Amino acid sequence: MTSLQLAITLPRLAPACPNAALALFAVRRMGAHGLDDAHAAEAMLAGFGQQFRRPLLCTRAFMADLSASATGPIAIAPCCCRRMTAAEAALIGVLSRAEADPARAHLLLADLMGRRRADGVLASATAMTLAFADEGRPIGGRPS
């Protein structure tokens, strides 16, 4: 793959925030291998310790709502990739803004899903964001 193809396919760097990186890893694993992916669950266990269940459940709910509501496919990169697709950058943007700037997060999510009404999925994104934050791992930082 040439550098131009890479820049077009994966235009963003992976998030520098380790909490956003954990969320991205879980989203990628669940998006590629299903909601019950063991690697995603293990990563959440490693990241949150014994309090991993709520963040894992909220991530699964978010992914289920997103996949059921999106009007088309959402491009995800392989888990080991240090760059993000534009769709992944939008997802990280939604998660990092869901609580503090819900109007902007709603617009990003609606564009990503191809729907005007994204309220239910935004509620799932907010629940995921709060689950991470309540366990001391806020999803912060904007995608670079």
Describe the structure.
With 144 residues, the protein is mainly alpha-helical. It has a two-stranded antiparallel ribbon. 63% of the residues lie in helices and 3% in strands. 40% of the residues are buried. The chain starts with a helix and ends in a 10-residue tail after the last helix. It has one domain. The radius of gyration is 14 Å and the shape is globular.
Give the tally of structural domains.
1
Mean pLDDT: 92
Please identify the structural class as seen in this structure. mainly alpha
Computed CA radius of gyration, to the nearest angstrom: 14 Å
How far apart the termini lie comes to 22 Å
Tell me the strand order in the biggest sheet: 1-2
- Runs in which pLDDT lies below 50 for 5 or more consecutive residues are none
Principal-axis shape? globular
Total DSSP helices: 7
What portion of residues is helical? 55-70%
The count of strands amounts to 2
Main sheet properties:
2 strands, antiparallel
Order of helices and strands: HEHHHEHHH
**Percent of residues in beta strands?**
under 5%
Pfam families: DUF6628
InterPro entries: DUF6628
Summarize the structure.
With 144 residues, the protein is mainly alpha-helical. The protein contains seven helices and two strands, in the order αβαααβααα.
Provide keyphrases for this structure.
globular; 7 helices; 144 residues; mainly alpha; 2 strands
Could you outline the blueprint of secondary structure elements for this entry?
Layout: H1 3-9, E1 12-13, H2 18-33, H3 38-48, H4 53-69, E2 83-84, H5 86-97, H6 102-113, H7 119-134
Antiparallel strand pairs: 1-2
